[in-house]
Amino acid sequence: MDLGRVWFRYQKTMLITMMMFKLGLLCTAAADKCLSSPCRNGATCLDNLDDYVCLCPKGPVWFMGKNCEELLDACITAPCSNCTSIPGTDHFSCHCPAGFTGLNCTEDVDECQSNPCDGVRSLCVNRANGYSCHCPLGLGGQACLENVTTCAEGLCQHGGICIDVPDNGILVSVCCWLPGGQVWEQHR
């Protein structure tokens, strides 16, 4: 977490400002706002022109807020939306929604890693929070294991037999054949 770096820069800026003020490089002295001891929980008060700044101490318990009066909530700066933290620490954890993983829940789970498309020559396509199977001609279903037909019961008349016929890689045409090999009717 970058909280340490941000904290260091903040302290460094405040110390430089304080030094410049004490050396008379900044505006004339105003009333010292730190005299009323506004900072809590062991924080250091720095008089800053017309205001003051509290430098909250680090660990084992961390505080935040203008006067260091609140326990630090690490989820405020966490890069995930489903965050939980231990108040007063810089520790947080992200609870990933379905289909995502990783420290910050930014990595998509590749559902195709488990080979869910079992059919011969089937292709698994990973999607956000799921997958889809591209099945070879004549197979379908969630895992490309079901026989797919465009033939409907009773489609062929006069004792004809229904046969699936590929049309541009998709089963869309159905021909009914009479016994003896003659084409009786064709359905699209």
Automatic annotation (TrEMBL):
<dbReference type="InterPro" id="IPR018097">
    <property type="entry name" value="EGF_Ca-bd_CS"/>
</dbReference>
<dbReference type="InterPro" id="IPR009030">
    <property type="entry name" value="Growth_fac_rcpt_cys_sf"/>
</dbReference>
<feature type="disulfide bond">
    <location>
        <begin position="135"/>
        <end position="144"/>
    </location>
</feature>
<feature type="signal peptide">
    <location>
        <begin position="1"/>
        <end position="31"/>
    </location>
</feature>
<dbReference type="Pfam" id="PF00008">
    <property type="entry name" value="EGF"/>
</dbReference>
<keyword id="KW-0325">Glycoprotein</keyword>
<feature type="domain" description="EGF-like">
    <location>
        <begin position="30"/>
        <end position="69"/>
    </location>
</feature>
<dbReference type="InterPro" id="IPR001881">
    <property type="entry name" value="EGF-like_Ca-bd_dom"/>
</dbReference>
<dbReference type="GO" id="GO:0009986">
    <property type="term" value="C:cell surface"/>
</dbReference>
<keyword id="KW-0245">EGF-like domain</keyword>
<dbReference type="InterPro" id="IPR051355">
    <property type="entry name" value="Notch/Slit_guidance"/>
</dbReference>
<dbReference type="GO" id="GO:0007411">
    <property type="term" value="P:axon guidance"/>
</dbReference>
<keyword id="KW-0732">Signal</keyword>
<dbReference type="GO" id="GO:0005886">
    <property type="term" value="C:plasma membrane"/>
</dbReference>
<dbReference type="GO" id="GO:0043235">
    <property type="term" value="C:receptor complex"/>
</dbReference>
<protein>
    <recommendedName>
        <fullName>EGF-like domain-containing protein</fullName>
    </recommendedName>
</protein>
<dbReference type="InterPro" id="IPR013032">
    <property type="entry name" value="EGF-like_CS"/>
</dbReference>
<feature type="domain" description="EGF-like">
    <location>
        <begin position="71"/>
        <end position="106"/>
    </location>
</feature>
<dbReference type="Pfam" id="PF12661">
    <property type="entry name" value="hEGF"/>
</dbReference>
<dbReference type="GO" id="GO:0007219">
    <property type="term" value="P:Notch signaling pathway"/>
</dbReference>
<dbReference type="InterPro" id="IPR000742">
    <property type="entry name" value="EGF"/>
</dbReference>
<dbReference type="InterPro" id="IPR000152">
    <property type="entry name" value="EGF-type_Asp/Asn_hydroxyl_site"/>
</dbReference>
<feature type="disulfide bond">
    <location>
        <begin position="96"/>
        <end position="105"/>
    </location>
</feature>
<keyword id="KW-1015">Disulfide bond</keyword>
<keyword id="KW-0677">Repeat</keyword>
<feature type="domain" description="EGF-like">
    <location>
        <begin position="108"/>
        <end position="145"/>
    </location>
</feature>
<dbReference type="GO" id="GO:0005509">
    <property type="term" value="F:calcium ion binding"/>
</dbReference>
